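Field notebook, page 311. I keep forgetting to write these up properly, so this time I am using the form the group agreed on. The chain and the ligand, uridine-5'-diphosphate, are recorded exactly as supplied. Prediction of the bound pose follows.
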Amino acid sequence: MTRKRILVSGGAGFIGSHLCEKLLKEGNEVLCLDNFFTGDKSNVVHLLNDPYFELIRHDVTEPFLAEVDQIYNLACPASPVHYQYNAIKTIKTSVMGAIHMLGLAKRVHARILQASTSEIYGNPTIHPQEESYWGNVNPIGIRSCYDEGKRCAETLFMDYHRQHRVDIKIVRIFNTYGPRMHPQDGRVVSNFIVQALRGEDITIYGDGTQTRSFQYVDDLIDGMVKMMASENFIGPVNIGNPHEFTMLQLAEKVIELTDSKSNIKFMPLPMDDPKQRQPNIELAKQELGWTPKVQLEEGLRNTIDYFTKVI
Ligand code: NAD
Ligand code: UDP
């Protein structure tokens, strides 16, 4: 195969680091771009000795120039705690980051994939969510810096495609978990596991009846790479695991698998927290021949092993 030069923005984050690893394993050259806001060098330190891996400190709200064949645009904090910390910076990252990465793709004729999100569906009124659904997003709420930023990024991707024929791909990623999530990431899977391992109370926001469908990171990476390789399909495509759980079920599962003595503590539900979420993945099956392979218990075991070592 021919070695491709691939840029991964947000490459030192949770998902980005797994992607860099996979792309290197497949024989490519990887430029990992990150401002280390939520990512960390430690996520990619094991790749630094690879002569085909380059780590570059850069903020995607500034333009970046390089000769590359492909771009994966992942730069953006993904946990509500982190993306709300500096909301204006979050929306700038999504919108200006998309403009800069699309500008680069246009200039060097690179194929570019956007890491979009199930959050673009907001608090969905149809269930499960399919790609044709336009969503139910509060444009002025505390989640909108992320949701609307990602929606605008999708618009920019489509417009660069229509106006400049840029070779784009859009994947809508549903809740993904796995090793290398930051222990203080704030998202539910890492929170529950860290709390259970430390014997602290498990914090359920609201009454725990809200649902999410959790995907293990290896399945996501497989889907993203398949999407990048597809010739004519641009998406958007949902990439997620359709098995849906309530947060109460997740808490009970984590307690069981960690053999923890933790108690469950109910806390206020954050504003605009989506009530339910489940991907319809028929399009990914059809167009990419992709289905998730790792079910929750196996994925949680791997993630628990990881956190047992790092905390
Ligand atoms: P993460 O926070 O671990 O990774 C984001 C990375 O982007 C970090 O390394 C961070 O330092 C970097 N970054 C943030 N702002 C930047 C900027 N201005 N310039 C350069 N780098 C910047 O989160 P993640 O879970 O790995 O998410 C990666 C991508 O996938 C994000 O775009 C996120 O929106 C998307 N996504 C993730 C999920 C999920 O469940 N994990 C779901 C849907 C979409
Ligand atoms: N959540 C929770 N306890 C936590 C963290 C999150 O009950 O310690 C809930 C949160 O309110 C939401 C769900 O878990 O209903 C998923 O939250 P997360 O931040 O992981 O992802 P998102 O809401 O962006 O899907």
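OBSERVATIONS:
- The chain has nine helices and 13 strands.
- Residues 79-80, 175, 187-188, 191, 203-205, 210, 212, 247, 270, 273 surround uridine-5'-diphosphate (ligand 2) (CB under 6 Å).
FOLLOW-UP: compare against the apo run.
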